[in-house]
Amino acid sequence: MMIRIFRHYISGVYLGLFVLETVIFFLSMRYGHDVRFLYTDSWYSNEYVYLSSAIFTLVLAFANTGIGLYRRSIGWSDYNLLSRSGVSFFVATLALIIIYYTFPAFTVARSVLVYALAFSFTGMLIIRYIFYKTIKHNKLQKKILVIGSGNKAKKLIGSNDNYLHKGFRVCACVALEPTEINEDGVRIITDAAELVEATDELDIDEIVVALDDRRSKLPMDELLDCKMYGIDVIDLLTFYEREQAIIDLENIYPSWFVFSDGFAGGDFRSLEKRFNDVIASLILLLVSWPFMLIVAIAILMESRFKGPILYRQVRVGEMDKEFEVLKFRSMRTDAEMHGAQMASKNDNRVTKVGTVIRKFRLDELPQIWNVLRGDMSFVGPRPERPHFVDQFDKNIPYYRKRHRVKPGITGWAQLCYPYGDNEYDAMRKLQYDLYYVKNYSLFLDFTIIIHTVEVILWGKGAR
């Protein structure tokens, strides 16, 4: 059910949902035109109608993607279909108005656009209702058998409990160690000799090795038989990389970095990424300069023209090279008079203007200059301060591996994990950063940039 595109894993179920809804959007514009001109002659050619339908579809598809409606890690608690859909259609409508105003040749009648939006919204709600009814179907879930029944196996079983669509279901565990499993519907196999028979009986798709003690003896003959029968056998690192888009630190070992695929670099990739960084930054600068001007004026007025607009701070960049990052000042000028400390929830050092610009990530906009200067990339791990880097490096294994690439304004960890203010959060975010470093591609960068819309509009991770 997982498809790997340019090294990044995509949910086949959500990809199918995306394709189905884009078809709905295209047909909505196509037949919205027909309804509008049901009793009169149309002044649009068929070619124009199809072109308008394609533009309409692309804009809505990007808006839905950016707002997180196809994110595989989304759960019921933060789904909010109606509010997300409403925001998505509002953003898409604004984008379409801008396109029509900028390129009058693509304009459609307002009545056609209203029909298209109404049909699209209704069609999407119907598709989503059917989606909810079918995502629990066994055929949409990979059946997993786990070698192991300890803490790691228990963690694996509950790893997607909060997801809207559970991409896999653990059917059985082979107990080669004291069992910690007490889950309904999970069969415990005490004799490894029954492995082949159990995989056939339960129609297992994949076997995952999840032993607490690596020294435990694996049933190699039985695993080889399963492999010969066409059942995939994978380790926990590969499983979590595919299912949760992380590099699990609990199961990593030094030689894995050497022998695993990924972590590719080279001059061409660096040049390619640099070219895209410059283009993306110039476009963002062109779009965001009015907001930057408003933020600068607001900061000056709040401080009564006494405090600085920009905040400069030393951060650790690529290959541990330090640089000075630029941000709009969102805290009091005496915020760190007692030394460096991480921002926390409801931090009383944050100003009133700072609260707003942090929520919508407007304080990050001056970092465009850092990207143009080459200190940062548009997408990458967030740069951390030297004091905290030294602290995390002592207690979190492989922490400095995140510095193998340039830090970014936005990143995979910022998209997938909320704002962190302690060492545990830094460790969790490192797992996403390592996934990005390992599987970097322009496709993954593009995916992160689109999904950053959700971070901005929903205030995810802002503090």
Q: What this model shows, in words?
A:
The chain is α/β, with parallel strands linked by helices and 463 residues long. It has 3 domains: 2-134, no CATH class; 139-244, 3-Layer(aba) Sandwich (Rossmann fold), CATH 3.40.50; 267-331 and 346-458, no CATH class. It is 50% helix and 11% strand. It has 16 helices and 11 strands. A 5-stranded parallel beta sheet has the order 5-4-3-6-7. A hairpin with a 5-residue loop joins strand 8 (310-316) and strand 9 (322-328). The radius of gyration is 25 Å and the shape is globular. The two termini are 35 Å apart. The mean pLDDT is 90.
Key words describing this protein structure:
50% helix, single chain, 463 residues, 16 helices, Rossmann fold, 11 strands, two-stranded antiparallel sheet, alpha/beta
SSE string, helix = H, strand = E?
A: EEHHHHEHEEHEHEHHHEEHHEHEHHH
What's the overall average pLDDT, rounded? 90
Number of strands: 11
Q: Report the C-alpha radius of gyration, rounded.
A: 25 Å
The shape, in one word, is: globular
| Main beta-sheet strand count, sense and barrel state | 5 strands, parallel
What's the domain count?
3
- The separation of the N and C termini measures 35 Å
- Strand residues, percent: 5-15%
Helicity, as a percent range: 40-55%
Strands in their spatial order, largest beta sheet: 5-4-3-6-7
The structure class reads: alpha/beta
Counting H and I runs of at least 4 residues, what is the number of helices?
A: 16
Q: Which regions have little confidence, pLDDT < 50, spanning 5+ residues?
A: none
